[in-house]
Amino acid sequence: MSNSINAELKMQLTSVPSKKPSPSGSNRMPTVLYLINQYPAISHTFIKREVLALERLGVAVVRVAARAGKELVDPGDLAEEKRTIYLLQRPSALLRATISSLLLRPRGFGRALLMTLRMMRRSDRGPLVHAFYFVEACGVASIARGVGATHLHAHFGTNPAELALIASRLSGLPYSFTVHGCGEFDKPEFLALEAKIEAAAFVVAVSYYGRAQLYRWCKLSDCRKIKLIRCGIDEQFNAMSEMERCEAPRFVCVARFSREKGLDILIKAAAVMAANGHKFEVVIVGDGEGRKEFEILVAALGLSGTVRLRGWLNNADVRREIISARALVVSSLAENLPIVIMEAMALRRPVVATQIAGIPELVIPRETGWLAAAGAPEALAAAMTECLLAPREQLEAMGRRGRERVLALHDVDREAAGLADLFATSVSQQNDIAIAEDRPLSAAVR
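Below the sequence we write its predicted structure tokens.
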């Protein structure tokens, strides 16, 4: 590893707070290498919150990503970008790490190569893609050795989990991963999800729905590995003391411009409401490759004065948009449990959402919001209309109940403490194995 990379690793470690006793009572907190495809990213604020909460507990977190997200606008994201090691920025270092792994750890190299071949079997991606993942994993293992990592953790069960698994084979470190989105559940066989779960120390689900889906795609004996650690809301939402009233006929939607978010359904629902004579506004915060298509649809339906596309905003501006709205609208066709629902409820705003996946775990009909059938503009329009016509007292009561529910279930520090316990247990079990095999502790990373 080059001197420049060593210097960067030292900067990573010196920026971590001094370690505190672990939540489970151990005196030594783990050093966890966090592996993410894009970090930071506008739509991945939940990862940043988790990382910062772990560091408040004293866990040393080393951020490693393939690349940074695009169009970063939030100051917190820009600060995280400076603290992240990017694999694709150093192709020569990846090559050196691969050669070093072959020469210095041939057995681990062989195990990792066999696992890579296993990942190729039913994959919808070509062999060259997996070969490149292998090279990236060599880089991850090299970084892990350089920082003295004791555990690898990936976010998403797609290629980050594959890199973590291969790097685990190369380094001998235990690994885990968190499953967030619908993508893993759409094609679990092509992602070798069962094999990833089998090899992991544990796997994190972020909702009951997500846990149930993982139960479907793992061996019965591996169900014990599936742990529920919810995504958390941080102090900028928790600290809100008084409800800021909003009687404006305005809805806000925060989403990427991708098919699964169902934004065309939302726009068509707005057309139904407008045709029924209702006066209101829909603000869509987000962006993506499909923006032009949605702009055309808004114009074609004569909604240019009703539906506004704001683009990406920083976290503070998103918060202001939610507060200035009567309710949040989620029109998704596929989800797990959207973070923005937690944020809106923490800000005492009801939610109008499609009745899918983990959403009903937070959105209780006429208690904290309204649910509508997915893919049905008329049903979504009916729910939004009911919200539009609801008296202020009803909206405020829903807001209070929603805030109570989300704070009870999604406190980021409490959830991070549970995750820190899992990391500490994984490291302890790895050391127990090393003692049983009569080899030095953490020998795999020396």
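The first helix runs from residue 3 to 14.
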